[in-house]
Write a structure and sequence with these properties.
- The chain starts with a helix and ends in a 12-residue tail after the last helix.
- It has an 8-stranded mixed sheet with strand order 6-5-4-3-2-1-7-8.
- The protein has a single domain, classed as TIM Barrel (Alpha-Beta Barrel), CATH 3.20.20.
- It has helices spanning 5-8, 53-65, 84-93, 115-121, 135-142, 146-159, 186-201, 217-225, 229-238, 266-271, 305-308, and strands spanning 23-27, 70-74, 97-102, 125-129, 171-175, 207-210, 253-256, 262-263.
- It has 320 residues and is an alpha/beta fold.
């Protein structure tokens, strides 16, 4: 796989300083039951990295001591971590809102048959990747049979009340472009998604998030192999929108890797750009105090243009 960090290190992206931490995004491991072309984590079935019990307990200790509003669980497939459910239940007992970044097909994996019911019981917000409403496009990007498996997962969630008006069970979908292009209007695309998924498959959901593909890991390596990396970076830079800078996720979010090391975002985690402590090594969740991060500079590189291009992009979809 081609390394992209050497192509991104030199940057003129504007400096950013952190605000108060409100969202803790925890990557529970890189193992996944899928292997998607756009994956910036390079996750897949053969990955072995997984957060262990000691690190998970350090995460829980921080949640108990800090004023965290949202726990955002990601991977890989975060549900494959053996301590996933313990972490969810503990966070909910602490009245923390929990997001599960679910690939939908995990809901049908052996041993996960009751997962959807568990998520509903704990009122977990589900953010599910569905990069298109066309089977051929989804299967081309995520693997043969993934579209059918995703629809089965969505139907299971709908039956439990997810995506239904006034149910309190939030189901949001995520769109990624098929290649080196910016996402279309999130508002317009949501209308199409809702119409087609309802009419063709009787599927309902709350919101659609459009997310720009980051030029790192698997997607970045593909761009280099095809000679498209420079053109894609030029596209991101040409579409830089200054107003998006005030809403980027690194202002109030910290990404925790499976070892407990801290990063300004999930993308920096994949590039190995940690939040540095006093000794210039990576800060760790076991030593984190919220106030230590306020006004701390964010580690930036050229990939940051991916979050500010066009309508903007974050883990919560478009910014503008």
């Amino acid at each position: 796989m081609h390394a992209t960090l050497p192509l991104l290190k030199v940057t003129d992206f504007p400096p950013i300083r952190r605000n108060k931490l409100e969202i803790l995004q925890v990557n529970l491991g890189y193992r996944c039951n899928q292997q998607c072309l756009h994956c910036h984590v390079n996750a897949g079935p053969t990955r072995k990295e997984n957060m262990d019990k000691k690190t998970l307990e350090q995460v829980i200790s921080f949640l108990k001591s800090a004023d965290i509003k949202t726990l955002d669980l990601t991977g890989g497939a975060p549900e494959l971590n053996p301590y996933f459910r313990q972490l969810v239940q503990t966070a909910r007992e602490l009245k923390i809102h929990v997001i599960d970044r679910c690939n939908l097909t995990i809901l049908s994996e052996p041993g996960q048959e009751d997962l959807a019911a568990f998520l509903a019981e704990n009122q977990v917000e589900v953010v599910a990747s569905l990069p298109c409403y066309l089977e051929e496009n989804v299967d081309a990007q995520r693997g043969k049979g993934v579209f059918a498996g995703s629809l089965a997962g969505l139907a299971k969630l709908n039956m439990l009340g997810y995506g239904k008006v006034d149910s309190g069970l939030i189901l949001n979908l995520v769109y990624n472009p098929q290649g080196p292009s910016l996402p279309p209007s999130q508002t317009d695309l949501q209308v199409s998604y809702k119409k087609i998924l309802k009419e063709k498959f009787n599927i309902e959901f709350n919101q659609l998030f459009t997310i720009t593909n980051m030029p790192i890991k698997r997607f970045g390596s593909m761009l280099i192999s095809k000679g498209q990396f420079g053109d894609y970076m030029q596209l991101l830079r040409e579409n830089y929108s200054a107003p998006n800078l005030g809403a980027v996720m690194c202002l109030n979010t910290v990404s925790v890797d499976y070892n407990g090391d801290l990063y300004d975002c999930d993308f920096n985690q994949m590039l190995g750009l940690p939040i540095k402590g006093k000794n210039q090594g990576a800060m760790h969740i076991s030593t984190l105090h919220n106030e230590k991060l306020i006004n701390k500079p964010v580690a930036i590189a050229d990939h940051c243009y991916g979050c500010t291009a066009g309508q903007g992009s974050s883990c919560g979809g478009a910014l503008g």
